[in-house]
Structures are given as C-alpha cells and as structure tokens.
Write a structure and sequence with these properties.
The structure is a homodimer. By secondary structure, chain A is α+β, with helices and mostly antiparallel strands. Helices cover about 35% and strands about 20% of the residues of chain A. Chain A has seven helices and eleven strands. Chain A has a four-stranded antiparallel beta sheet with strand order 1-8-3-6. A four-stranded antiparallel beta sheet of chain A has the order 2-7-4-5. A three-stranded antiparallel beta sheet of chain A has the order 9-11-10. In chain A, helix 4 crosses helix 7. Chain A binds a DNA duplex (30 and 30 nucleotides) through helix 6.
DNA sequence: CGGTATTTTGACTATGATCAATTATAGTGG
DNA sequence: CCACTATAATTGATCATAGTCAAAATACCG
C-alpha cells in the first residue's frame, strides 16, 4: 500500500486532528456537556440546576467497561470524550455490537425498563463520561418540561436510528451509510466531516454491520479504488460524498 | 463476565430483577386500554385524569393507513385491537417492515424527536387504536411521575427490542425468535401462546426478518417437518417450545 | 365457479462467510 | 533503537446460505 502524502505520519492521531469549534452557547461547565445532549431551550438558572445532577468521572482506558449486562442500572452516561461501544453476548457466546457512541451521546438507555443493564459498554481508546443518576433525572424532569422533552426526544431518536440500522442492505450500502453517519456526527460536533479517525477496529465495524471482517476490508478497498474514499489505517477521508450517498442508497446527507 | 454482585441492597425500593413492569389491575374504561400500556401504579383518580386524554377512534380496515411518513406528528397511538405494521420505503422504493404491533402496544414513538412521522403504519385486518395527543401526554407526565416513568420504560423497551432484532442471525434463528416473540406477546394479552393466527402475510414476515418470502416458506416447512410447529395457512401451533428456543439461540422464554 | 393473490416448491445463482496464508502494525523488553 | 511477538488487517480461494427466477399449487373473493 503506497501512500504518498500523509500530512503527519501518525505516532499520535491527536496532532493531526481537525480543530474543534464550539457548538453551543450554553454548556455544562462541570463536564463540558454540549448542546448535543442538553435541552436546547435551557437558560442559565436551569442549567445550574441541571449541573447539580451531573457528575464527572475519571477517564476510562481502552477496553475498560463502563457497565456490563446484569449490572444494576442507576445512572445514565453521557459520553464526554472519546468513543464507547455497546454490545451483547448471545447464548452461543457470539458478540453483537449494538452501537458506537461519540461525545454528546447517551449510554444505557436500554436499561431503563428493567432497572438492570442489558448490554455492555466499553471504552474504545481513552474516553470519559458524565454520570447522571437516573432517579435524579426523572425527578428533575418533573420540574423541567424541557428536560423531560429532551429525554423523550433522545429516546425517540435512538429508536429511529435503530430502525434504520435494522434494514436489509448490501455490504456496500451498509459500509457507505456507516461512514456517512460518522461524518455527520463528527460534523455536528465541530469536527471535520471529510476526514476522521475510526476509533473502532475493523472487526468491531464488521460485527456492527453484520459483516465479516474480511468483507469490511474488501469493501473499503473497493471504495478506495473507485475514488470514493481514502483509507490509511484508522484515518478515513471521504473524497466523494455524493457517490457515497448513492452507494448508501440514501438521499443526500 | 457475569458479576456475582447480585446481592445489592436497594438504594430505592424499586424492583430491579429483569422482569416486566408490574401490571396494574385497572383498565381504561374509555377504550379498553389494558394494563399493558398503562402505568402499573395508577390509582383510580389518576386513571380518570388519564382517560381524559385518551380518545377513541373508529376502526380501520385492512390496509388503511394510520399515518404516513411526513405526516405531522401530534398523536401517539395505542393499539386497541387487531394488528398494525410499520414500515418505511427507501430511496430505491424498497419497503422495509419495522415491526408488527399488537393490542396494547404503542405506535409512532419514533416520530417524537422530529415532530413528523418517519414511518408508515397500516392496519393488518380490521383494527382499532386509541389516540393520545402527544402534548397532553407530556403535560400530564409533568404532574404524574408514574406516567412519565411509564413513557420512559416503553421507549427504553422498544430500544432494547430493536437492538435484539438488529442482531445477526440465520434464517432459522430469526424465524424461531419471531414465533416465540409473538407467543409471549399473545400470552401477555391472555391469549394462547401455543396457537395463534398470523395477522401478517408471509412476505411481510419475510421483509421484517430480512429474508425472502420463499425462505420463510421453506423455514416454516422445515420446522413443521421437524415437529417444532404445525402451520396451516395463517394458523400456527407451537408444538415444541424448548426446541424452538434452542433453534432461536436464546434461553427459555 | 373463474380469475387473481398468495404461498409453496424446485433449480440455479450470487453475495458474503469461511478458511488459509500473508503482510502490517503496535507493544515490549533487551 | 531494534528485534521479537502478538494482534490486526489484507488478500486469495473456496463454500454455503439465502436470494432470485420460474412454475405449480393453493387460497381468496367477486
């Protein structure tokens, strides 16, 4: 694999990461929770109240678990930095990746109705979260319609996303849709939507997309040959988004 | 893997074992809403208040649409009788069935965050629903913690179900799991869990399970030959649930 | 009944999985 | 800094599950 121009040959991916631009006016000072996981309509005093139930935690290292199946459910987590993967292990011991969660996204929502975690969450690289005690969230939601509403929206959105992901698509479509999804989420966070690092391994991607690792490799190679993307290890550049959208079988992103 | 920290003194008085939310004795007199879609802890006066926001509608005929993509989202629907299917149509015109919804189950939850429907819902056979104006639900949730909690639970449960359905399984596993899911839902509604009618066509089932219609036919035939089930047209009898569970790759239901 | 829908069955095919081998990459300790 | 190892990613060859195409059988409905 001959790659001529690497802006920086990566001992660390951090150096070359596109700069962050602040997204929201309001932000939780305590943990940097951006607008992405906060109600848009919160004013200052509300924010202050809200901050009281947000608890910082120390960062997790690659592979560390945030929670596991059957753990007591007491807290919701908001990703502060890094990336987490959630997964389950079925009766036959096969792992199934349920999702990847970037900064500003919530973890553990599937545990609410059973008061027990039904999935595992593990850090991909050094990552951190904010902790929100669930009963404090519900209590506060009683007083703050905006928060209640926001919770409904977040849950609804996850339902919608999962529905979309459940659809029947070819390997190429799924891969293209996956890359575009990452792009749009990075963009929403102020990062480049054309170039980003994959926090997860090929086999995690494969598992998430219900493909074999080899297929992921091949599809990426094929996309590259067709000029849709450029891949170098973890770094992905989207060269032709329109074509990618077409490959994904979706309207423009 | 599975921790043994199951001995936890409760921080709250809540049940925390993996089981369904407790069911209530009460039922909405107005539309027959069963305990399945009502908060378990509602008492009589609360129920009366709740009933005020429940609106009966006239039954729909087979194929009638309850809502379509891009329709304004104003109401949540609770299935009163019959069965509904929700689906989307992708850019290429392919239909994707998202789910089947039996009495007591809610419809339209994926529309909350966009205030617009993102899926279509159509009746399978003559079916009816109750209508709940969404902003009345949220307003009432502010005053009734039980209702808010119930909404969170329902949304969380749907997330959990969708996650499970998204997993990568063989045709046999998916079919077995599908039959068992129906069985358990019928049982929860007081119907037989061993014998029931399929409200949906083979091709709807196939689409939902991401299989070809022909494959559904073949799998059902295979199951019958192996003595797991008996199928006659729409009527299904589960003859050997244990074997079905094994075929589904799940623990007993 | 007669005509249309749906379902089933059979033959063949293709997409993506599996198996196997090779090449990169990241970590570790001398 | 460089072997040395373990892990991850890629590439090739072959296989199998489920899809597609085609046709027959069965159910549905006026």
């Amino acid at each position: 694999m001959v790659d001529q121009q690497l802006v920086t040959k990566g001992t660390t991916g951090k150096l070359r990461r596109p700069k962050l631009t602040p997204v929201s006016q309001v932000a939780c000072t305590k943990c940097g929770l951006s607008r992405l996981c906060l109600p848009a309509t919160m004013d200052s005093p509300q924010l202050k109240t809200f901050e009281k139930i947000v608890h910082k935690t120390r960062p997790l290292q690659n592979g560390d678990h945030l929670f596991r199946v059957a753990d007591d459910f007491t807290d919701i987590y908001a990703v502060r930095s890094g990336c987490f993967k959630t997964y389950v292990v079925d009766a036959a011991g096969r792992e199934q990746v349920l999702g990847f969660h970037l900064a500003g996204e919530l973890l553990g929502l599937d545990a609410i109705y059973q008061s027990v975690h039904v999935s595992n969450a593990t850090a991909l690289g050094t990552s951190s979260v904010c902790k929100l005690q669930y009963d404090e969230v519900t209590t506060l939601s009683q007083q703050m319609p905006e928060l209640q509403n926001h919770m409904f929206h977040l849950l609804s959105r996850r339902i919608s996303d999962l529905s979309a992901a459940a659809a029947d698509h070819t390997a190429d479509e799924r891969m293209a849709a996956f890359l575009l999804s990452l792009a749009s989420r990075f963009k929403a966070r102020g990062y480049s939507s054309k170039e980003f690092n994959l926090a997860m391994s090929r086999s995690d991607i494969a598992n998430y997309l219900r493909l074999a690792t080899e297929t992921v490799s091949r599809v990426l190679a094929r996309f590259q040959k067709k000029g849709l993307i450029k891949v170098d290890r973890k770094l992905v550049q989207l060269l032709d988004k329109d074509a990618l959208c077409k490959a994904a079988g979706t309207a423009a992103w």
